[in-house]
Amino acid sequence: MLNLELMEELNKLNQELERTKTELAILYEISNAMRTTLKLDEILYIILTGVTAHTGLGFNRAILFLINEKDGLIEGKMAIAPESGEEANRVWRRIEQEQMDLEDLISAYQFSKSSVESAFNQQIRRMKIPLREQNGGMLALSVLDGMPLNLNREAILKYSNDPIIQLLKPEELIVVPLKAKDKVNGIILADNFVTKKPITKDDARMLIMLANQAGLAIENSQLYEKTVLRSHSDYLTELWNHGHFQYLFQAELEKAKATKTPLTLIMIDIDDFKIYNDQLGHQAGDQILRELSTLLKKQSRKMDFVCRYGGEEFTIILPQTDKDEAFAIAERLRQDIARQVFAHEEILPNKKLTVSLGLAAFPADGTTTSSVINHSDKMLYQAKNKGKNTTCR
Length: 393
What we know:
Elements: H1 2-34, H2 40-52, E1 61-68, E2 73-80, H3 85-97, H4 102-107, H5 109-116, H6 119-125, E3 128-130, H7 133-145, E4 149-151, H8 153-157, H9 163-168, E5 173-180, E6 183-191, H10 201-232, H11 242-259, E7 263-270, H12 273-280, H13 282-299, E8 305-310, E9 313-319, H14 323-339, E10 355-362, H15 369-385, E11 391-392
Parallel strand pairs: 10-11
Antiparallel strand pairs: 1-2, 1-6, 2-3, 4-5, 5-6, 7-9, 7-10, 8-9
Helix pairs in contact: 1-2, 1-10, 2-10, 12-13
């Protein structure tokens, strides 16, 4: 009898040991994958693939939110989930037939791209939830408490008005905060909405361990992106600097060539800025540059790239925009700047701070970056000769 009990105990210990080895192998593989990149989107994709992969944690659906401390928001960033049970079965069959492991799934971005760019994923990206317990519901509660939530059907009923519950309609859900140095920087939600498989204590423990690694990977990625952003930004105006302008313009020109779409460049120069600098000093001039940069960014479209070209010159790259559209945009900017009140502008010849603008378009005015830039520069020179505060094309 004693030997039988001992054998059962040994079998139980062996099973636990095997499970622990499997769990550690999964976490090791996901952790290694996260170390292969510092790009945030790729990191998020790897994390969610690890949560949903059959050779990973095996959840049916996973969603990742990041914390925006500046605006006090919990923002949806990425989701991996099948649109339906039929799609889930189709994907799982393909994975099984091709014997895809976790590394294959992470590498096969094109295969999984439909999940990342699905209508469901777009819904998640539009979600912005207040980081306040009163208005933010269960996500804000998890962030502020820093504790995971494992919600069964009864607990979910308490959050029936929560927007994420209304979207997911889960029967069971686990919510785990992501942490870096004891600070919550994101949240993972996961469930089994297709298989209806219960979320066990082992499932929750594995997701929490993965979340601890994921939080650090996200922090490293965000620090890297901030460093890259600083290296490409002008220290004074916080616009893209000259070097990055050249890179962006080349990339957009190649894209315009490939898609056969228009591309226009606006060159902007502050009129009589030397007078302002000479009479009031460079600190006053710097303030004008900062104010003008803020106005240019605010009045430009999200798709445009506003850059400091050098000195008092700025450029705006306008993708998918022909010269007529660009001229209307340039004229609106010129008029907005003329209406803006700048400190001590009365010392200028026209008692107002104004700008001159020159336009050039691809392919009408050039098919290379240098030829388009040269043409916009000529048009800017023409605008100066016409009496300034003018747009030429």
